[in-house]
Amino acid sequence: MKILIIEDNRELAQSMEFYLEGENYICECAYNYNEALERLTFNSYDCILLDIMLPDGNGLNILNYIKTEKISSGILIISAKNALDDKINGLEKGADDYITKPFHLPELHARLRAVYRRKKMDGYNEVKFNEIALNTDTYEAIIGNTRLEVTQKEFELLLYFLVNKNRVLSKQSIANHLWGDYTDNLANFDFVYQHVKNLRKKIGVAQGNDYIETIYGLGYKFNALKYNGS
User: Do 42 and 75 meet the contact criterion of CB atoms below 8 Å apart?
Assistant: First the structure.
């Protein structure tokens, strides 16, 4: 999961970032309104942690921007203890859930996972397509009856393909999703090719179908229609 943390309290933001990265998520932080809009303009995220009270703007306006631009990220509002109106307005404007300060980081993690399951996985912790089954709790990847020996990045890559079936994904978007900020200034993304190659090889060895297509000059696509999928 790739997460954007929009929170002006740097200590809290960095605490959330440290904890969630320990749970193997990619995290990026925006500490004010304008920085948040800039990141949302140029990057995509699975989930957004959105503080309503920002020093240079209202988080509800960011929520409006997210909905206007049809950004599909799950949204978890971070609200002050007594800010009932913010919670109600946020949910009415399309947020998926809220958490009230102060909160425990394991609760935050649980709520994020629940938002992601509802948003991307129809409420389940498993993603299945034809002979492929992924369990996001155990990081197991199954092809038919065979358990794939995949790295964490290969698992995340296959999950990224599955939740974006039939969409062309550029090498840059794959790199940014799986490795985060530090890929922004890279001259090329050849390492993505190697990860895709290794994943396709392992699926083939397990007698799985080769759904992943190279779209020359653009990137890759998980072709869900190739083997009579849905």
Answer: no
**Spatial separation of the C-alpha atoms in residues 162 and 166, rounded to whole Å:** 9
In whole angstroms, give the CA distance from residue 59 to residue 172. 28
Task: Evaluate whether 165 touches 129 at the Cβ level (below 8 Å).
Answer: yes
Contacts of 32 (CB under 8 A, 6+ apart): 8, 54, 55, 56, 57
Q: Where are the alpha helices (DSSP H) in the chain?
A: 10-22, 33-42, 59-68, 84-92, 105-120, 152-162, 171-179, 190-205
- The pLDDT-based confidence of 217 (bands split at 50, 70, 90) is confident
Decide: pTM greater than 0.70.
no
State the average pLDDT for the chain.
85
Half-sphere exposure of 196 (CA within 13 A, CB side): 22
